[in-house]
Design goal:
The complex is a heterotrimer of chains A (528), B (307) and C (378). Chain B is built from 12 helices and no strands. Chain B has 307 residues and is mainly α. Chain B starts with a helix and ends in a 7-residue tail after the last helix. Chain C has 378 residues and is α+β, with helices and mostly antiparallel strands. Chain C starts with a helix and ends in a 5-residue tail after the last helix. In chain C, 51% of the residues are buried. Classes of the chains: A alpha+beta (528), B mainly alpha (307), C alpha+beta (378).
Chain lengths: 528, 307, 378
């Protein structure tokens, strides 16, 4: 006990003294959903990993404060007329944190590394549009056959399998970030350790203590270092959103990329515009199992969808942090236009409910012959509240819902293994701003995501057709046609569009709300 | 006695082996694997990962491999914290959990013990009732309620103490977590001490000691308290093992990098090696503390013999 | 000692019949005022929980969409100043313009107009809301462009407020009590019984048997509990009995260790050795001499175990084993409440009051029981 107290006091004294001497240092205390599983960009898959990696590395393209894709290491590029060959011109002043120049060869090395099956990249499939990428990742081709070539140190050529209008956006994704080849060769998997890491972004990694913090400091070798106003960013994993709110209230963190939805009203009242809600590129939905006898009837699926009062869900259950969703693809997405909304979107809720009751009755269900459904969700307070509300909305139609919750791993293992379920909660956040990234979920050859066991050859054909179409407008209309089929068949029942909710201190400047919820620290500053 | 200790230490080996074996297979039966998170992976990617982490081998082979690396003190790589080995995670977190847990334990023993003795000496009087009422509140209000309330009051509203963060073990950051950890233990220790103390005070040898005119204080300390500690000590064995291996609620709410969170994180992420690591650590603590408890019995009560 | 002073003389009145240890204990327990008051309180809570939901106006699973998270109040909802705006916003959903609204007692009257024909079905918006009933359209103008709408105001009481789904927290707290009291008391009894028998046998037999039995306890302490629960859910689905198994499986361990510790000390005492010398068999010694003498710590530990079990249940719910919506338990309500503490404190306060007062009562009953059962006290 005594030694404990003594070391504690000593540490406190040390902290106090460093706090005094280092008052000029600008430290950004940043809450971030959870700890990264890894800081190896090629092995990552999550949004909270991207938030850290985006500060450490810069890809060929990168995101600005508004989340828009802008030139990064590549200062310009040319696209061949057939949309297959991209030639990037790399900036001359791009440097690694150890002073090495960033070369085209580094990107060749990095892209080959992520496709190498031995790397174990979780999200390699994001870059499958690159020629031979899928084959390399499936050990069907050698890594050298990947369609990436360094013409010279500052010219990179990437060849694609098929024209991909969102390819430039993909390169800003965390999987497109480069690694420093010499460090990877020297340290192997250990290259991510703070003592070994070499990065080319605005910051460099100093410490990573799991469940405590990640400390990154300004990279003086970064080409835009002069404009980076923050010296140190401390990332804290804030798994407990209530605790994060309290830390924010006490001024211990400047921002957090989540907030307790239960306390929205309180936050709006007390935090004012420090509590931010912005549209987000994601859809909250219920998967309907098409193998279930009752649910195989499209009218039943339509009825279930119509009876859901989405305004109530968005406003009361989610406190206005979600938006009523009438399509699978969220509005505002790139390369699209207006999504294909459900045809009852403009009906009043009373008319919808009437129609839903008629449809169910026609399908043979009602008060005397109830439709019994099991609704599964992964444990979380608001998934529960949503499920309870929806069960209540379906009740008047003669639908008897039993609610089953399990932990996340059990829930998704069941969905993936096509377990025995009727209705199951799921959600999808877009990896890039393109409707394909939402509509591909229910392609029949996509067993991992197609929880509904949906199989419609017409739909698959349209998706293939869209993939082969270069003309953006034409492609958009094909995809929209596919979504119309989606909304008619309802493999998934779209309920809400996600909103991103954040706590942003009034002292923190440069945080701009955007659809992708991307907020690089390099554009921010802190008012003293 | 030496023979007894030796026997107990030897019996720890088969016990540990049994724990490791049962746990290894138990966690593999559970649905979902370490790479089944909210976003499903491509089948081929999954295959690559399984190969890299040797999950594609038959289960019995994985089990033998695990035993082999465990025997050499290597807990293996973490499946979730992919930049760390389990040994690295524990080297970082275990000292922190032990530091917090032992402080809470000492606090609980001192405060709880004193409350219990006091209440027993004033049995069925206002002091007794108020102490026991306080103890009841301590055990009734769960730590996931206490922690937010304490941080709201002392951190957010009054601004006296930090709301969260470890801050490299600054004393300010440790106060609230230690208090939160200690509160329920204080209550338990107080109640157990009081009960045993009342019994001990009535026992013949204490009555005799009193009759011989020994002062109240020495009767309490020397005679009564010694016997009264038995149930407290029994309780403390497993309780200490639990406290020193960290608390998931306290660590999550206060943002402390101990190992308590790994019990739940490991299980929910199906991080097999991390779960096995926590199992082994807990087993070692339980075995050691229960041995210590049994030895303390013999010290406290000469009647206890193990032959 | 108060209990001794108030103890009735043993051979007063019924000297003929021999008095057992249990008769004595009961009398002494009934003489303990705190314990009796606690028993009454506990009985009151139990009765409220088991009968209350039958008489309260709100079913426990009724969702009032217009009253999500309203604070606890003795006054009825809707508040007077809510009525007119609520009526206006409901009527506007029927795409009409609201000209005037008049609230008089239980009736509301509104003049509405519209550029299109007014659809009389719009009163359904009123009827399906939780605020109004018996909506009627009267005085529909000849051109169908203006009318008067009247409706009755529903008065609903939410004494404990409502939860995030707009369900009455009072009914839910009482329903939750059924689950929590049942599992809290029954699972505790199960765990205590196993623990006492296991611990006393282990301690009394001693030697190798003790060593083996205690190593089994060590093993069970160390197994990953979460997986045990997940597997129970996966292989057996959810049911109430599984919950007892899961709770029982872990919670008897502490008890077994405590009782074994006491037994180790007791078995060397004169009265036990005397019984052995008289040829009483092992079971007899355990039953008559060892177990009764361990009851003090057992009873105290029991009162500590009840809250543990009740809160453990909420963790089981998290993993899908405990109670499922729309049913609920105190543990679940309190953990929900703790997440709403800023902004909806009533969601934490009321379930906590019920849990805390129940546990207070249990503690005093426990103390009373302990005093009453104390063999040295006779």
């Amino acid at each position: 006990m005594f030694t404990v107290m003594r070391t504690g006091l000593l540490a406190a004294a040390l902290i106090a003294s460093t706090a005094l001497t280092a008052s000029a240092e600008v430290v950004y205390h940043r809450g971030n959903t959870a700890d990264p599983e890894t800081l190896d960009q090629h092995k990552t898959s999550t949004i909270y990993e991207a938030n850290v990696l985006r500060d450490l590395y810069e890809g060929l393209t990168t995101a600005n404060a508004k989340g828009e894709t802008v030139p990064g290491v590549a200062e310009s590029w040319m696209i061949s007329d057939d949309g297959l060959v991209y030639t990037f011109k790399l900036r001359a002043d791009a440097k690694w944190s150890n002073g090495d120049p960033v070369t085209a060869g580094d990107f060749v090395y990095s892209l080959q590394r992520i496709m190498n099956p031995e790397t174990g990249a979780k999200y390699a499939n994001i870059l499958f549009p690159i020629k031979n990428a899928e084959k390399v990742n499936k050990s069907e081709a050698k890594t050298e056959e990947l369609g990436v070539k360094a013409i010279d140190d500052h010219t990179l050529e990437i060849t694609l399998e098929a024209p991909t209008p969102y390819f430039i956006d993909l390169l800003a994704h965390q999987t497109g970030l480069p690694v420093h080849p010499a460090s990877v060769e020297k340290y192997g998997a250990e290259f991510v350790k703070p003592e070994n890491i070499v990065s080319n972004g605005a910051f460099v990694l100093k410490e990573f203590v799991p469940n405590s913090h990640i400390k990154v400091t300004k990279n003086e070798n970064f080409h835009d270092a002069a404009d980076v106003k923050i010296d140190t960013v401390m990332f804290y994993p804030t798994e407990d959103r209530g605790a994060a709110l309290r830390r924010f209230q006490a001024g211990e963190i400047h921002s957090n990329n989540d907030a307790p939805v239960e306390q929205v009203k309180f936050m709006r009242e007390t935090l004012g515009d420090q509590f931010r809600v912005a549209p987000y590129l994601g859809t909250y939905y219920y998967a309907l199992n098409h193998k279930d006898e009752a649910l195989s009837n499209p009218d039943v699926r339509q009825a279930l969808s119509m009876a859901v009062d989405r305004e109530f869900l968005a406003e009361e259950i989610w406190g206005g942090t979600m938006v009523p969703g009438y399509s699978m693809v969220p509005p505002g997405i790139g390369n699209y236009g207006e999504p294909a909304y459900a045809d009852y979107k403009d009906l009043s809720q009373i008319d919808r409910e009437e129609k839903a009751a008629d449809l169910l009755k026609a399908a043979g269900f009602g008060a005397d012959h109830p439709l019994k459904l099991e609704l599964r969700y992964n444990t979380s307070e608001n998934h529960k509240n949503t499920a309870v509300a929806i069960a209540d909305m379906w009740k008047p139609l003669g639908v008897e819902v039993s609610l089953v919750n399990t932990d996340t791993a059990t829930h998704y293992a069941l969905l993936r293994d096509k377990g025995d379920f009727d209705v199951a909660r799921a959600g999808w956040i877009g990896d890039y701003s393109d409707p394909q990234n939402f509509l591909f979920l229910v392609e029949s050859d996509n067993p991992g995501f197609n929880y509904a066991n949906y199989n419609n050859p017409d739909y698959d054909k349209l998706m293939d057709e869209a993939a082969a179409t270069t003309d953006l407008e034409k492609r958009a209309s094909i995809l929209k046609h596919a979504e119309e089929i989606f909304m008619r068949d309802l493999p998934f029942l779209p309920l809400l569009y996600y909103g991103s909710i954040s706590l942003v201190s009034s002292k923190l400047h440069g945080w701009e709300d955007n659809l992708q919820n991307i907020h690089p620290s390099r554009y921010m500053s802190i008012a003293q | 006695m030496a023979r007894y200790i030796l026997g107990r230490l030897l019996s720890a080996i088969p016990t540990l082996f049994l724990i490791v074996t049962i746990s290894f297979f138990l966690i593999r039966i559970a649905p979902g694997g370490p790479f089944d998170l909210e976003r499903p992976l491509e089948a081929k990617v999954m295959e690559n990962l399984a190969r890299i982490y040797q999950l594609d081998k038959p289960l019995w082979q994985q089990y033998l491999l695990y035993l082999k690396s465990l025997a050499s003190g290597d807990f293996g790589p973490s499946f979730y914290f992919r930049d760390f080995t389990i040994n690295e995670l524990f080297a970082e977190g275990l000292p922190i959990s032990i530091q917090l847990g032992s402080s809470a334990l000492v606090l609980a023993l001192i405060v709880g013990g004193a409350m219990g003795v006091l209440a027993a000496l004033r049995q069925n009087r206002p002091a007794d009732y108020s102490i026991m009422a306080a103890a009841t509140i301590g055990v009734t209000i769960p730590n996931f309620v206490v922690a937010p309330l304490l941080t709201l009051l002392l951190g957010v509203w009054l601004g006296w103490l930090p709301v969260g963060g470890w801050n490299n073990g600054a004393a300010r950051n440790m106060i609230l977590p230690i208090v939160t950890l200690a509160l329920p233990q204080i209550a338990v220790v107080a109640r157990l001490t009081r009960g045993s103390m009342i019994e001990a005070l009535r026992s013949n040898h204490v009555r005799t000691a009193r009759a011989y005119g020994l002062s109240g204080y020495s009767v309490v300390v020397v005679h009564a308290l010694r016997g009264a500690l038995l149930p407290v000590v029994s309780y403390l064995g497993p309780a200490a093992a639990a406290l020193l291996t960290g608390s998931v609620v306290v660590e999550t709410i206060f943002g402390i990098p101990g190992i308590g969170r790994y019990f739940v994180q490991g299980a929910l992420n199906r991080d097999y090696t991390l779960v096995m690591g926590t199992v082994v650590v807990v087993a070692v603590f339980v075995i050691v503390f229960n041995l210590i408890v049994d030895l303390v019995y013999a010290l406290l009560d000469p009647r206890v013999r193990y032959d | 000692m108060a209990t001794i002073d108030q103890m009735p003389a043993t051979d007063n009145g019924n000297a003929v019949r021999g008095r057992s240890l249990w008769d004595d204990a009961r009398d002494r327990l009934l003489a303990n005022k705190a314990a009796v008051a606690s028993m009454i309180l506990l009985a009151a809570v139990a009765i409220a929980c088991f009968l209350g939901p039958l008489v309260l106006p709100h079913p426990y699973d009724a969702v009032y969409r217009d009253f999500v998270k309203v604070p606890a109040s003795l006054e009825a909802y809707p508040r007077e100043d809510q009525i007119a705006p609520a009526l206006e916003s409901l009527l506007r959903r029927g795409r009409v313009t609201v000209d005037t609204v008049e609230v008089s007692g239980e009736r509301v009257t509104a003049r509405i107009s519209s550029s299109r024909d007014i659809d009389p079905r719009l009163v359904r918006y009123l009827d399906r809301s939780d605020l109004f009933r018996n909506g009627e359209v009267a005085d529909l103008a000849a051109d169908g462009k203006s009318a008067t709408v009247t409706a009755e105001v529903r008065r609903l009481h939410f004494f404990f407020g409502t939860d995030s789904n707009g369900r009455d927290l009072m009914t839910r707290t009482l329903i939750a009590g059924r689950v929590s009291l049942t599992i809290g008391l029954l699972a505790t009894l199960v765990a205590i019984s196993i623990g006492v028998i296991y611990g006393s046998v282990s301690g009394y037999l001693g030697g190798r048997v003790d060593l083996l039995m205690m190593r089994v306890v060590d093993v069970l302490y160390s197994l990953p509990f979460i997986f045990f629960v997940i597997l129970l859910v996966v292989f057996f689905g959810r049911n109430f009995i599984l919950m007892f198994i899961a709770v029982g499986a872990v919670e008897w361990l502490d008890m077994a260790r405590i009782v074994r510790g006491q037994t180790l000390s007791l078995k060397r005492q004169e009265f036990v050795q005397a019984a052995e010398a008289l040829g009483v068999d092992n079971a007899g010694v355990l039953k008559r001499h060892i177990i009764p003498n361990t009851l003090g710590p057992v009873v105290i530990y029991m009162t500590l175990l009840v809250p543990k079990v009740i809160l453990l249940e909420s963790f089981l719910s998290f993993l899908g084993l405990g109670v499922q919506e729309p049913l609920t338990s105190w543990g679940v309500l309190i953990s929900e409440g703790s997440r709403n503490v800023q902004g909806a404190a009533w969601m934490l306060i009321f379930p906590s009051i019920f849990l805390t007062s129940t546990l207070f009562a249990l503690n005093f009953i426990g103390d009373g029981l302990r005093d009453a059962l104390d063999p040295k006290d006779r």
